[in-house]
Specification:
Two copies of one chain form a homodimer. Chain A is α+β, with helices and mostly antiparallel strands. Chain A has two domains: 25-150, PurM-like, N-terminal domain (60s Ribosomal Protein L30, Chain: A); 163-281, PurM-like C-terminal domain (Phosphoribosyl-aminoimidazole Synthetase, Chain A, domain 2). Chain A is built from nine helices and eleven strands. Chain A has helices at residues 4-7, 9-18, 65-82, 102-118, 177-180, 185-194, 207-217, 237-242, 258-268, and strands at residues 26-28, 35-38, 44-54, 86-96, 122-130, 138-148, 163-167, 199-202, 221-224, 249-253, 274-281. In chain A, a hairpin with a 5-residue loop joins strand 2 (35-38) and strand 3. In chain A, helix 3 (65-82) packs parallel to helix 4 (102-118) and helix 3 packs parallel to helix 6 (185-194). Chain A is globular and about 55 Å long. At the A-B interface, helix 1, helix 2, strand 3, strand 4 and helix 4 of A face helix 1, helix 2, strand 3, strand 4 and helix 4 of B.
Chain lengths: 297, 297
């Protein structure tokens, strides 16, 4: 019997998605950073997202619980950034062994609350469950938010000739930044107001895996100038492409807007680099490989 | 160091909830069956809920995956029923071992989709993650929905003198019904339109545990006529009170409305019993005990 590891994450998600029947009010279903549905205020849409952290996969059980909590919320917030929206209400599901220390859970919750409040959103509910002895902790965070209907950015809107930018510096996240990163909500909301974005996503599995996703969802190939990829200190190009958990933004922008964007960005965010790393093509191939697959053997 | 099992689920949730800061737009935060926030259409509010199933806790790994999927969705839907609302969009988080068979996951998803569509709602997104080898499967379902602002029913609205009803028959759910039950959405939505409900909740942990919750949240005691508790075939009173996973509705109604409710209910739902099982009191005690605590030793 074929198991999940023989398919890989991408194929698993693709197969499961075909089993779902869509109902009314759904503008964008599974496959983008958030689902987009009718809702929100006048001129708005509602964004929905769920995410999870598993002990031993996304964090080590000995990691500081406050940071694990920050990460659990920040990962979900990062997906709202990727759509050009803003999160509002969050739900937390905790599945923990009974032997888990109360202090650990309290610190976890403090970290979650701190991240939520830092971005003006609130944890409004949750669910706790036990897991069998010896099983890892699991934290799932679901969120609702809104975006201006005219400003929602999908992964699929890239066009041949668009230039590609990334925010920040990539690679080396496991040295600590994967627990403390800033979701790029402020930057993404500035971008949708100040630049004709064609496509955007957040980088969670590594540029080597995420860039091909954006390109293929947009029906494009891509060219990547590897030497232009901004790297964290002491990180090789290979690591910058494949380490994953960067939670930076990848965006596709009409080539004619690139210069103006670069200049406006520098004024607005002088301390955060925005780097031109390549372009989308009509058809293309790349020697990119690597990145993180959840079910690969 | 005190661990979760030494506190018990109730105390864990109570402590964590105090660590959260509320933001704007929240009408009802943690503690009820759903959170209630500003949103939805004119005259409506938005309901938010998350829930989860853990392998070995909420289902056996050898259970039919289609039924596990049905249960995962139906549990969340049951919480929308408990508020007098209706669910709309669902998000699914799967944390599964790589050794999980693809066919198992497909059947799981088919069961989830079947339940969602049976109640006019849609799975609009999800997240998949691996878990370490040997760890149990985990399925978290979050949902959004709406209720009429004037018809939302909380756990906390019960008043001394109210009479208590339950739908269906209690106990013995583990013989199979916990995987195939019908969330009482139709019944709850009829109730909010046809009866002045003071309080309502769905029974997940057993009447012996859930009734005291409803009473204490309402600032009341309660009297339970144990012999009036409707029991599944071959089930003792003790089992009916403590087995849990009934997913029936418990409601508190002004005593003067009881007769009219019973008669209208019989016409509307002739095959589903509605049983008067007791009343709320100004102060009260009970010999009730048992039910399911997630972190109890």
């Amino acid at each position: 019997m074929p198991d999940l590891s023989s398919f890989g994450e991408e194929a698993v998600v693709a197969r499961l998605t075909t089993l779902l029947e869509a109902g009314p009010g759904i503008l964008i279903g599974p496959g983008d950073d958030c689902a987009v549905v009718e809702g929100g205020g006048r001129g708005e849409v509602e964004l929905l997202k769920t995410d999870c952290l598993v002990g031993g996969v996304h964090f080590l059980e000995e990691a500081a619980p406050g940071k694990v909590g920050w990460k659990a919320i920040a990962r979900t917030l990062s997906d709202f950034a990727a759509m050009g929206g803003w999160p509002r209400h969050l739900l937390v599901t905790l599945a923990l062994p009974g032997s888990c220390e109360m202090r650990w859970v309290e610190q976890l919750y403090r970290g979650m609350n701190k991240c939520a409040r830092a971005f003006d959103c609130s944890i409004v509910g949750g669910e706790t469950s036990s897991v069998p002895a010896g099983a890892p902790s699991m934290i799932s965070v679901a969120g609702t938010g809104t975006a201006k209907r005219s400003q929602v950015v999908l992964r699929s809107g890239g066009r041949p000739g668009d230039v590609l930018f990334v925010t920040g510096r990539l690679g080396g996240s496991l040295r600590g930044r994967h627990l403390t990163f800033t979701p790029r909500l402020v930057e993404a909301n500035w971008l949708v107001r100040n630049c004709p974005l064609h496509a955007m996503m957040d980088l969670s599995d590594g540029l080597a895996r995420d860039l091909p996703r954006l390109a293929s969802t947009s029906g494009c190939g891509f060219l990547l100038e590897k030497d232009s990829v901004p790297r964290s200190r002491g990180i090789t190009v290979e690591e910058a492409l494949c380490d994953g958990e960067d939670y930076e933004l990848l965006l596709a922008v009409p080539a004619r807007s690139a210069k103006r964007l670069e200049s406006a960005w520098r004024k607005q965010f002088p301390r955060l680099p925005l780097s031109l790393i390549g372009s989308l093509t009509a058809e293309g191939e790349s020697d990119l490989s690597g990145g993180w697959d959840h079910f690969a053997g």
